[in-house]
Amino acid sequence: MDIVLRAALMYLVVLILLRLSTQRIMRSATPLDMVVIFFFGGMAVPPILGDDRSVTGAILALCTIAGLHTLLSALKRVWPTIGMVTEGNPVVIYSDGRWDQSQMRHRRIDARDVMAEMRQQGITNLDDVQSAIIEHTGAITVVPKRRS
Question: Which of 64, 76, 118, 124 gives the lowest tally of CB atoms within 10 Å of its CB?
Fold first, then answer.
């Protein structure tokens, strides 16, 4: 039972710390983001397992983490606030020719990140962009202007 409690605690601690420290996990993760993720994962294992080096202990810890993850995924469908806390909300950082510097600082995103996403979509000029949005996944969505 001790392993279950330690696994649950470390899952929540790592979730909160990753949520606070890394905003762009999925598609636009940088090597710096990945280092943080790997270190958090590596540092979380010893406190979970302690002196228990058994396969049973490891399986119990993994099942606890998988169960918590599944539970949070189900709960966020019932209570959207849980999704907002664990995953965040989309945020517009560029619209109508203006950057939202406050949101960019808060999300630790700079214009180069948006420009890189624009180029991946074949957009070469910022004048052709209606808006740029940081999705809850951390990905950047660039919405091109509609041509009339």
Answer: 124
Q: Are 109 and 134 in contact (CB under 8 A)?
A: yes
Q: What is the largest CA-CA distance in the chain?
A: 67
Query: What's the CA gap between 14 and 37, in Å, rounded?
Result: 9
Q: What is the spatial distance between Cα 137 and Cα 28, in angstroms, rounded to a whole number?
A: 10
- Which residues span the domain enclosing 26? 2-87
What residues form DSSP beta bridges with 137? none
pLDDT digits (tens, 9 = 90+) for 61-89: 889 999 998 998 899 899 988 888 877 78
Alpha carbon distance 120, 65 (integer Å): 35
CA proximity to 36, closest of 19, 61, 55, 57: 19
Domain stop point among 42, 70, 87: 87
Q: Which tens digit of pLDDT belongs to each residue from 86-134?
A: 777 889 999 989 999 999 988 888 888 889 888 988 998 899 999 999 8
